[in-house]
């Protein structure tokens, strides 16, 4: 078993690097374990036991740590340590009360009232109030300064869209602090998944008067105030940040790890080397061969991602405007073969809503509640012939556009080969750098496109709403009245069971009937974790949470 190394506090005054982390192994006491050691030279608490420290590795910081700003995956990892939403959900879909201790929903489903914990405090000891949640919401809705990619997820609140678009005032936004500990949302229309939206950064609190848009307040421990189990103590851009136990966290007595260092290592092989040498205790996003190499090890952990990779046909381009052609392409693909070529952490999928998204009815997966289309090479040939292209004769060469990276190149080549083999049609491949690819996608200037979506929150609507006629993320021109109606009906459903019926109807229209999107694969995340770390919990997206983790011998 690998053991956690003791870290001397004096080392944190200088920048971390892989070399420095190696040298840390010899600092502090002579013991290599942080538990059961009475030497206090490692900077541990006055109880005499050594300080419990773990080191995690992450890629480069994407976006900022401001929930009202350009908050992406890096913010998500930081928030799980340092910031509490109103409520959250565990891996089984159960509600966890976080900054709020209770909430009520009005009979007409338009008003949500949250009662905040009066004992909740920021890491400077000041009270967390309803105004702090409004500080994030109002800053996110200020389109001049926010830069938030999630601002539109606030539009369910009455007056929010108008404020963002400049046709209404911020004072008219119906997110209201009735008093310091009562936060009320009046919705523009019923939104059955509103509590799931609370997982998005724009619904998290930020300290009023301290968290100010247009500044780097989140990089300074003096101003990056936290209401979660940990608080920021160091931030070095593109190198590392350090969080330590927040003494003002309402459940601080149950937080056992004293310090977590998140180091930036952008190269995968360097991450693996840092882990195997003991410099890093948690390594995520590793290549599939690690799963085989560590198959029998208690260091391996797997996260079934809530994600789907698909082929997106532009339905406004001939012959992709013909549903028979789109179905032929969908049925011709051998997904098991494609996934095998990409790695053991890829697996086939036949629905747009991810395989491992928990059903909003509670228990089980949404994917498993209904049947999906099946691959059928012979039927694919028949469909193409019905569309006027027997044996691929007369079919134009289509271009498949994808992001320029190794995995997507393998996927592209597999799709190209299979469509040639089964349908005798030619596909030209075009790899694009990320910025160019995103522009192509956004402008709809493609024929076939590699499209991927990973859940922002755990509800099927996060995937299905993308293809409504008025969606800004409807990149391939889908406009289907029956689909729009099914989505609208799901939003007005009285129960989650009724709502699921409409959501499945919508997905059937999207995929099984019209093949507006052609699902191909999902994947699981491969990681390594020092088995001395115990008590790790998981949220409803399967992400690791070290809030109540501990270290053992």
Task: Tell me what the structure shows.
This protein is of the alpha+beta class and 553 residues long. It folds into 3 domains: 9-64 and 220-303 and 526-551, Periplasmic binding protein-like II (D-Maltodextrin-Binding Protein, domain 2), CATH 3.40.190; 83-203, Dipeptide-binding Protein, Domain 1 (Dipeptide-binding Protein, domain 1, Alpha-Beta Complex), CATH 3.90.76; 307-525, Dipeptide-binding Protein, Domain 3 (Dipeptide-binding Protein, domain 3), CATH 3.10.105. 26% of the residues lie in helices and 20% in strands. The chain is built from 15 helices and 22 strands. The strands form 5 sheets. Strands 1, 8, 9, 10, 11, 12, 13, 14, 15, 16, 17 and 18 form a 12-stranded mixed β-sheet that branches. A 4-stranded antiparallel β-sheet has the order 4-5-7-6, with helices on one face. It has a two-stranded antiparallel sheet with strand order 2-3. Strand 6 (175-179) and strand 7 (182-186) form a beta hairpin. Helix 8 (323-332) runs antiparallel to helix 10. It is globular and about 75 Å long. The model is unreliable at 1-48 (pLDDT under 50).
